């Protein structure tokens, strides 16, 4: 940068030199939101200097030959200096706690002959909070002092000769702030200073996705130890886990702390990275509690993405109590090898299980009794006068005894196998049948 002063050349060089700083600035951290960066502005800053012959705006070059604007003051020959420099009005947005980073060089008073007692090696930093731009007048009594700023390293005439400056970096904090904006002011009390850059920023936790929940940009709290609790919003096709809403805390340093709770992908979707993607064709996910999509079970299909269940193929069914992960099934075939035994008006029936149980293990049997006329061959239901042992329907075993039949009558018995999906089928009933003629009724003496 260019360093100029109103001092005689025997105190500090007046030539326009490119000076190299001993320390360079660090890159902006991702958690900072910049409100002002004087080094990034290549046009005149036009800050207010009071009195006008105090601080002076100077153009220069940094170590990368980039043009920068600096403010310098070096009124060290006379006592009781009170030189103010005020920034333009800075809007703060929704920030409550502001950071001010100053980079500056300061001349060692011992290296300036004849200024003992009038030369200082500190300056003061102030701020004034306001809801609007108050113009270009500085009223010193409105400003609140933040701190006295001192240099860790000061430079001497020898450093100037080597074209090397010792750059100091100091960071101060303001807050909590409640108004729309503020001014910064720098008060020189008799030092030889070059204010190389002023950066004003606040910290926030940048938006992230954690456990399938979106946490928005969040400004840090007003106090250094404060934590801001933030509730997350589930990503598309996700929902909050029951009684476990996603939450995180934004720390004062702009860092998200350990997450609490989470979101989970809805039925028909599975997690992929930070998103929920739909199950592909031929796959399904029936519940948000399931982690991954599953392939459709046997005799079922899904012909679209994002399916929460698979549809059964033609002639196959799923019972209301069947979970979605079991195969679709069908009604059983007819019982086999139906045989009978007649004892007067009692008929015993026995049969073998069906060749095809439909893919289920809940097969039961039902017996239908019909009495048929001799002439026309018409049949009617036997009605409630007929008894069954052990029962007529819901038979778990493959035998039954039918009692109280009429003597010398024609009967047809149909034995049907049933399972959990038989009532869902509209297909023709499959059964085994036998026709018998009863004998003489038992005579009670």
Automatic annotation (TrEMBL):
<keyword id="KW-0325">Glycoprotein</keyword>
<dbReference type="InterPro" id="IPR011641">
    <property type="entry name" value="Tyr-kin_ephrin_A/B_rcpt-like"/>
</dbReference>
<dbReference type="GO" id="GO:0030425">
    <property type="term" value="C:dendrite"/>
</dbReference>
<dbReference type="InterPro" id="IPR013783">
    <property type="entry name" value="Ig-like_fold"/>
</dbReference>
<keyword id="KW-1133">Transmembrane helix</keyword>
<dbReference type="InterPro" id="IPR001090">
    <property type="entry name" value="Ephrin_rcpt_lig-bd_dom"/>
</dbReference>
<keyword id="KW-0067">ATP-binding</keyword>
<keyword id="KW-0597">Phosphoprotein</keyword>
<dbReference type="InterPro" id="IPR050449">
    <property type="entry name" value="Ephrin_rcpt_TKs"/>
</dbReference>
<dbReference type="Pfam" id="PF25599">
    <property type="entry name" value="Ephrin_CRD"/>
</dbReference>
<dbReference type="InterPro" id="IPR003961">
    <property type="entry name" value="FN3_dom"/>
</dbReference>
<dbReference type="InterPro" id="IPR008979">
    <property type="entry name" value="Galactose-bd-like_sf"/>
</dbReference>
<feature type="domain" description="Eph LBD">
    <location>
        <begin position="32"/>
        <end position="210"/>
    </location>
</feature>
<dbReference type="GO" id="GO:0007411">
    <property type="term" value="P:axon guidance"/>
</dbReference>
<keyword id="KW-0808">Transferase</keyword>
<keyword id="KW-0547">Nucleotide-binding</keyword>
<keyword id="KW-0812">Transmembrane</keyword>
<keyword id="KW-0829">Tyrosine-protein kinase</keyword>
<dbReference type="Pfam" id="PF00041">
    <property type="entry name" value="fn3"/>
</dbReference>
<dbReference type="InterPro" id="IPR036116">
    <property type="entry name" value="FN3_sf"/>
</dbReference>
<dbReference type="Pfam" id="PF01404">
    <property type="entry name" value="Ephrin_lbd"/>
</dbReference>
<protein>
    <recommendedName>
        <fullName>receptor protein-tyrosine kinase</fullName>
        <ecNumber>2.7.10.1</ecNumber>
    </recommendedName>
</protein>
<dbReference type="InterPro" id="IPR009030">
    <property type="entry name" value="Growth_fac_rcpt_cys_sf"/>
</dbReference>
<dbReference type="GO" id="GO:0005886">
    <property type="term" value="C:plasma membrane"/>
</dbReference>
<dbReference type="InterPro" id="IPR034283">
    <property type="entry name" value="EphA7_rcpt_lig-bd"/>
</dbReference>
<dbReference type="InterPro" id="IPR001426">
    <property type="entry name" value="Tyr_kinase_rcpt_V_CS"/>
</dbReference>
<dbReference type="GO" id="GO:0005524">
    <property type="term" value="F:ATP binding"/>
</dbReference>
<keyword id="KW-0732">Signal</keyword>
<dbReference type="GO" id="GO:0005005">
    <property type="term" value="F:transmembrane-ephrin receptor activity"/>
</dbReference>
<keyword id="KW-0472">Membrane</keyword>
<feature type="domain" description="Fibronectin type-III">
    <location>
        <begin position="331"/>
        <end position="441"/>
    </location>
</feature>
<keyword id="KW-0418">Kinase</keyword>
<feature type="signal peptide">
    <location>
        <begin position="1"/>
        <end position="27"/>
    </location>
</feature>
<dbReference type="Pfam" id="PF07699">
    <property type="entry name" value="Ephrin_rec_like"/>
</dbReference>
<keyword id="KW-0675">Receptor</keyword>
<keyword id="KW-0677">Repeat</keyword>
